[in-house]
Write a structure and sequence with these properties.
The chain has 193 residues and is α+β, with helices and mostly antiparallel strands. It folds into two domains: 138 residues, 3-Layer(aba) Sandwich (Aminopeptidase), CATH 3.40.630.30; 44 residues, no CATH class. An eight-stranded mixed sheet has the order 1-2-3-4-5-8-6-7. The protein is globular. Bound molecules: coenzyme A (COA). Coenzyme A (COA) binds next to α1, β4, α2 and α3.
Amino acid sequence: MIIRPYTDTDEQGWLRCRVLAFLNTAYFDNVLQKKAHYDRPSIELVAIEQNKVVGLIDIEYEETPRTICTAYNTVGGMIWHVAVHPDYQHRRIGEKLLEAALKEAKTAKLTYLEAWTRDNPPIPRWYEKMRFTQKYAYHHLYFDETALEKYDLSVPAQVHPMTMFAHYTGSDPDVLNRASRRHLCMCYVKRII
Ligand SMILES: CC(C)(COP(=O)(O)OP(=O)(O)OC[C@H]1O[C@@H](n2cnc3c(N)ncnc32)[C@H](O)[C@@H]1OP(=O)(O)O)[C@@H](O)C(=O)NCCC(=O)NCCS
């Protein structure tokens, strides 16, 4: 297994690796058909085994504090994507991708990394094992048609909302219990020294 910078010819492998990695997680329906490209500088690495993309990490980073990240008043890098193909998980590929990315982050003089993830237990556990700490959290709520009937949404005539996805920063159980699907979305940070 080697870790090297992403190139455009990796795109299909990158997309397949990512979608399979997320299949059994709380982000199962977050499917991309094109890889993201970044306006600001970035660290984009892939893990390759037998010519196949088996892992990936994308970090976009700041030149001015708080233009991408939220945690500190110093420059940081946002982990937009980190994923390991399910057939290759638990072999420290995620850890090695992070180590390689951290090396580049140090060269770029970043002071911390930030990542957001939902509350399916193995993933926060991985961040904690990689010595990230949780900074804050809020809810991601999904409402189906029945749940939406209880809300008086202001939409134009003849528009009939069938589903809604919302960020919720409160903690009212009535709001939380109305959602047909809910996740805690957590911010993890790791200082770079
Ligand atoms: C998170 C992820 C990148 C970790 O990559 P990995 O190469 O499998 O992880 P590593 O081998 O480096 O580290 C393994 C550790 O992570 C944790 N972990 C990761 N996946 C786990 C799972 N499915 N079950 C239990 N623990 C898990 C454990 O702490 C494990 O340590 P252990 O083997 O001593 O129990 C990978 O599991 C993945 O792609 N997950 C789905 C995509 C995702 O949710 N990405 C995070 C973004 S928001």
